[in-house]
Amino acid sequence: MTSDTAVLAEDLTKFYGPRRGIEELTLDVRAGEVMGFLGPNGAGKTTTIRLLLDFLRPTRGHARVLGMDSRRDKAALHRQIGYLPGELAFPGRETAEELLRFFGDARGGVPWTAVTGLAERLDLDLSRPVRAMSKGNKQKVGLVQAFMHRPALLILDEPTSGLDPLMQQEFLAMVREARDHGQTVFMSSHVLAEVQSTADRVAIVRDGRLAAVEKVETLGRRAVRSVEIHFADPVEAADFTGLPGVTQVEVTGPVLRCTVDGRLDPLIKAAARHEVIDLLSAEPDLEETFLSYYYTGEGTSDVAAAGA
Amino acid sequence: MLPPLVRKTWRDDRRTTIGWTAGVGAFTAVYTGFYSQFQGAAELKQDALPQGMLDFLGIADMLSPAGYLQATVFSLIGPLLVLMCATTLAARTIARPEEDGGMELLLANPLSRKGFATQRLTAAATAITLVAVAPWIVLSILVPAIGIDVPLGNVAAACAGLVLLAWCFTGIAFLAGAVTGKRGTVLAVTGVIGVTTYMANALSNISDSVSGLKWVSPFYYFIGGDPLHDGWNPAHLLLLAGIGVTTAAAGVVLFDRRDVGV
To answer: Is the CB of residue A109 less than 8 Å away from at least one CB of chain B?
Structure first.
């Protein structure tokens, strides 16, 4: 393990009795990168995160985080981690300020200006009891405590849940700044859009197994897009079915609708034989790419390539 | 400077601790304060109750000053209150945050598992000790003030027994929570052990054929040696402390070995 790997999971497997949490998950997160950790609910994202934090003990395999053993070096390791739980609950009845002072003290002292700075960015009132806060405000307290000590590694489980769009943007800016400071971010989500703009790579889990690890740009390039072409005259569906990458061909009179996986070229060449009036192509939607991974099982073959 | 987690735990337990300390102290003060008025009533009560019932309740005699204190403060309600508080606070160390979800942020503290469990237990145990010491403080003032004829050394011996009884059950409750992480289990295990061992001691008082039962009961080691009459019994007190420390240590070790928050 070298210092440029922040998280290294090897063959990580966790069963809860007979029920599978994750199985044979091998993953590395490079130091200084933002990695999105994606998968539908129940795929094993939280299980993986809890294994990395030593809340759970693996059935097989092991994890090294920041070059340390999750269990043996827990005390030293957790000082360098900022963790946002997926299901956020705060111990005690204190105000946000008292709670955050506790987190700061426990981590060996955090300059209070770092806390107030974050609170201001997120528009969070620190004088109120955390218990009485709305879900969104609790989420902000969770984010402040995760970021406040500038940890080497941020592990964020569903970080934007409960945040309004404006605060989501602010959060994404915080993630980008963290990367600029050389911090590593490992954030889970079941929504691709929220990691699309910040993550360098995404790991996709499905049914407890790693389905793919890809650069975000790669995911975008190979994304499925929906295309709609309006012709001057009615066309035959047969002219377009069977083109490479083109599926779900649907023709109503002069209008063609289809989805294209990969390059648009074959479709454009075929369409050029007719008079084209309008062409609409929906922006590559990672959500759809992601769903195609989940539902069709496509992408499993990418694991080997991504792991290399 | 105390560890932040210990101070945080105290802060979270503050209201409960103050409430129980005040309650247990007031209970002790009220019963002790009525000593002179109760003398007549005590006589009636003693005459009215069959000897077997008196033995079961651990009331040797209600007429002597030591017997009066034993019957009121130390026989049932005193230990019951202290143990309820001990169970409540011990259940909060691990089981409650694990059930309500607060555990994740607590456990994310830069502490080893054992360090975490030890600090949580230390904080709870000091709070419980404060509650259990309340009768000691009250009696140290009231016994001489009212003129109850019991040596303060004997009062101290009985009160120390109450503190160590609390430690004993704190250890048991902590162990149950550290292993299972479930508050219901903590309350059930501690409650069942508390009631059965109380009964074991009580029954051993009324029937010679089952008198051996008392040896398995923490309540015997707390009050069975009759500290109000006979003073300190170090072996009994050490045994109570030993059970508390052993179960607590087992809880710390077993908490270190399991999955948390599943």
So the answer is: no
Q: In this predicted model, what pLDDT tens digit does every residue of B109-168 receive, in sequence order?
A: 999 999 999 999 999 999 999 999 999 999 999 999 988 889 999 999 999 999 999 999
Neighbours of A227 (CB within 10 A): 18
Return the residue of B nearest to A76 by Cα.
Answer: B110
Chain B contact set for A88 (CB, 8 A): 101, 105
The alpha carbon of residue A106 is apart from the nearest alpha carbon of chain B, in Å, by: 5
Which of A105, A138, A147, A157 has the highest number of chain B CBs within 10 A, making it the mutation to test binding with B?
A105
**Terminal CA-to-CA distance of chain B, rounded, Å?**
34
Q: What digits encode the pLDDT tens for the residues A121-139?
A: 999 999 999 999 999 999 9
* Interface pTM, i.e. ipTM: 0.87
pTM (two decimals): 0.85
Q: Assign a CATH topology to domain A5-219.
A: Rossmann fold (3.40.50)
For residue range A42-85, what is the model confidence (pLDDT) as tens digits? 889 999 999 999 999 999 999 999 999 999 999 999 999 999 99
Neighbours of B156 (CB within 10 A): 16
- Could B4 and A76 be called an inter-chain contact, meaning their C-beta atoms sit closer than 8 Å? no
**Shortest Cα distance, chain B CAs vs residue A31, angstroms:** 21
> In chain A, where are the structural domains located?
5-219, 224-283
- Residue among A100, A103, A105 nearest A122 (CA): A100
A81 CB within 8 Å of a chain B CB: yes
Q: What are the extents of the domains in chain B? A: 4-255
Is residue B64 within 8 A of residue B147, CB to CB? The reply is: no
How far is B154 from B175, CA to CA, in rounded Å?
Answer: 32
State the nearest Cα–Cα gap between A165 and chain B, in angstroms. Answer: 25
Residue recorded with tokens 């219901």: B184
CATH architecture of the domain A224-283 equals: 2-Layer Sandwich (3.30)
